[in-house]
Amino acid sequence: MKYQSNNTRKGMIGMKNRGLIILTVSLIVLVLAACSNNRSMVDNEASQEPGKTTVPSGTTTNTNPDGNATGGDQKTIVFSVFWPSEQYEQAVKSYEAAHPNIKIKLQYGLSEPYSDEGGGEQTDADIEKFTTTTNAAMLAGKGPDLVDLRYLAADDYERHHLLEDLSARMDEDHTFRKTDYFTNVLGSEQGGKSLYSLPLSFSLSGMVGDRSAIAATGVKIDDRSWTWDDFMTAGKELVDANGKYKAAIVSGEGLQVGGTDYFVRSIVADNYSRFVDEANRKANFDSPDFTGLLKQIKSMFDDGIISTSERGYFTNVSILSPEDYLTTLNLFGKDTEFYIKPHADQEVAGTSYETRSDIGINAHSKVKDAAWDFLKYMMDHTTIGLPINKERFADAVKALKKRGTITPPTIGSQHSESFKVDEAQLNRLEGFADAASRKKNASGKVLDIVSANTAAYFAGQKSAEDVAKLIQNKAMTVLNE
Q1: Which of 155, 217, 318, 384 is the most buried (most CB within 10 A)?
Q2: Looking at the domain assignment, is residue 235 inside a domain?
Q3: Assigned domain for 408 exists
């Protein structure tokens, strides 16, 4: 089994602190993301030792053959997830109340109890133990009935036929209406390819732009259809306009500044399927597509379109929830806007996205029907992040409008002022979700290889072709481990 590490932060190595103000604001961004992640099923209020279970009141441990979820013999669903989650626990309690014959056991992988004083922090050893134990059980035809696939090699599970075909489930279940969900994010329209996991929520990846500063330059922006060539042209015009900023975009995320390696990593992550086919163990880095991308990025750095040291007209961001969307816009100024990232010529236009809380059903489970029914329930009742269910998404937007104001958390002595909910901006969020078309991969060993080996090209030490071949060889080694 291949272990996929969650090493998003590795791409941030080498980033520089640009002063106390930027550091303080950056801390606010991190806390906001952490708060949103807590709402996004990474809520660490409960805890268990590896392999042990949290059993809501009334749960029994006897497992019986499969049957209808709404009646019949008593059935127990084992649901495995690494992080303790209040959202999962609430879903279990409400589902069990409506289905007296179903009991759900939550299994957690965190090794020690979580507390506000610092206990229960994620460690590589915890993740390694969780993945090793889960992989062994799944390969043996055992394991949990439902599994949150974070930290697990989902592609390996598919290849070994360890997960239930959920495309068939969706097609055969007359109560499941695809139109209730963001089908573009579900991936249910992906050319006949079967799905083996379904997300409960997702995030969007794009750019925040200083709208007033861009307007002052007179440069026209069409982010609904622009390619990287278009961005280079517009970026050069922005730089030559001698306006508020010296660069078109900063290499980094939020107010964190990175280098050339970070920028390449972020673009490959946004277009991961273009260069990597993990299911079939193939990589496509030794191709004109990738070498052309490297040369294109180098040209943007050489022309000053991308900066590694200061802010630009645009900054890369990730949107985790409706509240996070407005907070991020407000953080960068009073007249900002969310823009879709440019795409490569060979790619379709649209927002980059990342699925969250991807859930699969064990192909060897004896309670697959009941597990499928509970998975549907979670999809229809999840209210965290950007919910995959369109009605829950709309509910979250309505609730934020009704609240009227947002108060960001205070960091140390840095006071965060409340601000009014911008309904006009909020109304645009669903359009970005509907336009989601490019699935982002924000972690993994292949991306580590990309970011670690491109510096030689940007430093003029190796050609783009030589770097591409090196990355291709290392990526294929990792993919075939």
Answers
A1: 384
A2: yes
A3: no
Looking at the fold, whether 348 and 367 belong to one and the same domain comes out as no
Q: What is the mean pLDDT of residues 25-35?
A: 38
- The pTM (predicted TM-score) of the whole model is 0.79
Residue 10 included in any domain: no
CATH number of 311's domain: 3.40.190.10
Whole domain around residue 241: which residue ranges?
Answer: 22-38+203-353+441-479
Going by their DSSP bridges, the two strands 249-253 and 351-361 should be labelled as: unpaired
Q: Is 444 in contact with 193 (CB distance < 8 Å)?
A: no
Check whether residue 256 and residue 173 sit in a common domain.
no
Q: What angle do CA 143, 147, 153 make, to 5 degrees?
A: 90
Q: Please work out, in degrees rounded to the nearest 5, the angle formed at the alpha carbon of residue 204 by the alpha carbons of 200 and 206.
A: 175
pLDDT, one tens digit per residue, over 360-400 is: 999 999 999 999 999 999 999 988 899 999 999 999 999 99
Is 395 within a domain? no
Cα distances (Å, whole numbers) of residue 281 to 198, 270, 466, 480, 481: 22, 19, 22, 6, 10
Token pair listed for 430 = 């669903």
For the chain, what percent of residues have pLDDT higher than 70?
Answer: 79
Pair (454, 321) in one structural domain: yes
The DSSP code sequence of 463-476 is -HHHHHHHHHHHHH
pLDDT given for residue 15 in this prediction:
35
Same-domain pairing of 224 and 267: yes
- pLDDT tens per residue, range 147-179: 999 888 888 888 889 999 999 999 999 999 999
Q: Which long-range contacts (CB under 8 A, 24 or more apart) does 287-294 make?
A: 287/468, 289/344, 289/346, 290/468, 290/471, 291/464, 291/465, 291/468, 293/228, 293/264, 293/267, 293/344, 294/264, 294/454, 294/457, 294/464, 294/467, 294/468
Residue 340 sits in the same domain as residue 284: yes
